[in-house]
Amino acid sequence: MSFLIYFALLLIIPLWAQMKVKSTYNKYSKVENSTGKTGAEVAREILDQNGLYNVSVEPIGGRLSDHYDPRTKVVRLSEENYYGHSIAGSAVAAHEVGHAIQDKESYAPLRFRHALVPVANLGSNFSYLLILAGILFTSANLLLVGIVFMAAAVLFQLVTLPVEFNASSRAMDQIVSTGMIRNNEERQARKVLNAAALTYVAAALVAVLELLRFVLMFVGMNNDD
């Protein structure tokens, strides 16, 4: 029964976070901001105010596909946010610019996360294979190697948290100080950013729980020996 509850939590936590961000985004993507600025205009204005004239803003297909690409120095906004005038679009655009500002300032957690990408990718691709092999062949050594690979991927998830929270904090500071959002809009924009942050918290929590489960399995396997 405990295993069923555990796996139910692994399924429910990320699903709940995704539902929360989608419902909050859907609500405030229908609320026009008072300045009439598009997401693209919001992003461009904040970039220019921070001297990031070399960073471009481009539309991209998909929904909630917004991101900042540090390799090409491009803020990519989903078409809905790029062309739209919503509170949600303004908040998301400012958040992605927050990552560009982090990049400019060489924000330490962002740099650390970038350095972890190759190791985290290896961990994501091979950890479960090694762990499964360790379980099937009752090999504590294989299980341990798989746990190490998984730990790298989990560390990436954990480092992502301060990066995302800091980008949201920068976003709120920028759009409030410049008057891009006003009065009650600040609370609405914060709701959008907080809901988005939940997805990262949920992913990190699930990753830590999975790592802990396999660590306990490794300890039990060693005790049996």
TrEMBL record:
The keyword Nucleotide-binding does not apply. The keyword Membrane applies. The chain crosses the membrane at residues 126-156, 192-219. InterPro entries: Zn_peptidase_2. Keywords: Membrane, Transmembrane, Transmembrane helix. Pfam families: Zn_peptidase_2. It comes from the Bacteria. PANTHER family: MEMBRANE PROTEASE YUGP-RELATED. This is Zn-dependent protease. It comes from Fictibacillus solisalsi.
